[in-house]
Design brief:
With 322 residues, the protein is of the alpha/beta class. The protein folds into 2 domains: 227 residues, Alpha-Beta Barrel (TIM Barrel); 69 residues, Up-down Bundle (Bacteriocin As-48, Chain A), CATH 1.20.225.30. α5 runs parallel beside α6 and α11 packs antiparallel against α12.
Length: 322
């Protein structure tokens, strides 16, 4: 699965990555719910795939993620999302952002498992039994002492499956991910448990699966640094070899992403492309060169020109693969 990453895995990124292949599902960036029911346009902005039966252009289902602490409001918004065509609802109890946590959302709720249970129960009862209601959590807020208890309450509340990011809120995104701590959850629950965190390549994925006992994985930053990672994992699972994407292929994808920003104000147009390049630098040496070329550019036309010049350089023999 492709992880929800606020400000990163938006509609355009979901379209690009799922077109490469390997994904069974995506989850939207979170829709922050307070105490009111959003109008249709808000759901369509969060999940444009609703206009395509809740799937990306290549047919990958996209669950709509809700974040908040008000069970009634979350249930009402889940009901509307499903009425608009969302194939599933995901509940976010893992976001570590301080702003979100200060307002009682995301991983702050890991300190009060009973409220999580109440929310999951309300959402589960609000939508048809055939609609999946999935949950994403971390190991805990400051430690993992409540992890197993929380997971069991989530299952009792009727969740379809549980994804565990194998770090606490206090850990943030600092390595390592503690995959082994999820094994007790996997052994105790009867619903599928998905492992997430620090999965950068096939070796990491295999270790995460072995340590946690989980079969399914959710890819976040690893998917951005290696856009065909999901395909690589599928091929490893089937014990077959594939041709991995080359840096020239990635440059073409960067151009696709940049084109989606042409309508934005000049000072924002290249931001997503630069952001993606920071992730790609982990995997591709060519990303370093291109990032240094564009990092100070502000005009859309200048970004397009520099990427085109970089691509032409590749065609005359420059190598961009780490």
């Amino acid at each position: 699965m492709l992880a929800p990453m606020e400000g990163v895995t938006d509609f355009h990124m979901r379209r690009i990555l799922t077109a490469i292949g390997g994904y069974n599902r995506c989850v939207t960036e979170f829709l922050r719910v307070t105490d009111h029911l959003y109008p249709e346009r808000v759901f369509m902005r969060c999940c444009p795939e609703l206009a395509n039966e809740g799937c990306t252009t290549t047919g990958t289902p996209v669950y709509l993620q809700l974040l908040g602490s008000n069970p009634t409001a979350l249930a009402d918004n889940a009901r509307r999302a499903v009425a608009l065509g969302a194939p599933g609802i995901d509940l976010n109890f893992g976001c570590p952002a301080k702003t979100v946590n200060r307002h009682g959302g995301g991983s702050s709720l890991l300190r009060t498992p009973a409220i999580i249970q109440e929310i999951v129960t309300a959402v589960r009862q609000a939508v048809d039994s055939e609609i999946p209601v999935t949950v994403k959590i971390r190991l805990g807020f400051d430690d993992s002492s409540l992890l197993l208890h929380t997971a069991c309450l989530i299952e009792q509340a009727g969740a379809t499956e549980l994804c565990v990011h194998a770090r606490t809120r206090s850990d943030g995104y600092k390595p390592p991910a503690h995959w082994h701590e999820v094994e007790a959850v996997r052994n105790a629950l009867n619903i599928p448990v998905i492992i997430n965190g620090e999965i950068w390549n096939a070796r990491c994925s295999a270790s995460a699966q072995q340590d946690s006992g989980c079969y399914d994985v959710m890819l976040g930053r690893g998917a951005l640094s290696c856009p065909d990672l999901a395909v690589q994992l599928k091929s490893a699972e089937m014990n077959c070899s594939i041709a991995e994407l080359q840096w020239s292929d990635i440059v073409a994808l960067l151009q696709q992403l940049l084109e989606t920003a042409e309508h934005l104000p000049e000072k924002y147009a290249g931001n997503r492309t630069k952001q993606w390049l920071t992730y790609l630098r982990r995997q591709y040496a060519g990303a370093d060169d291109l990032f240094n070329r564009v990092k100070r550019l502000r005009k859309f036309e200048d970004m397009v020109r520099e990427i085109s010049l970089h691509e032409k350089g590749l065609k005359v023999g420059q190598s961009g693969i780490a």
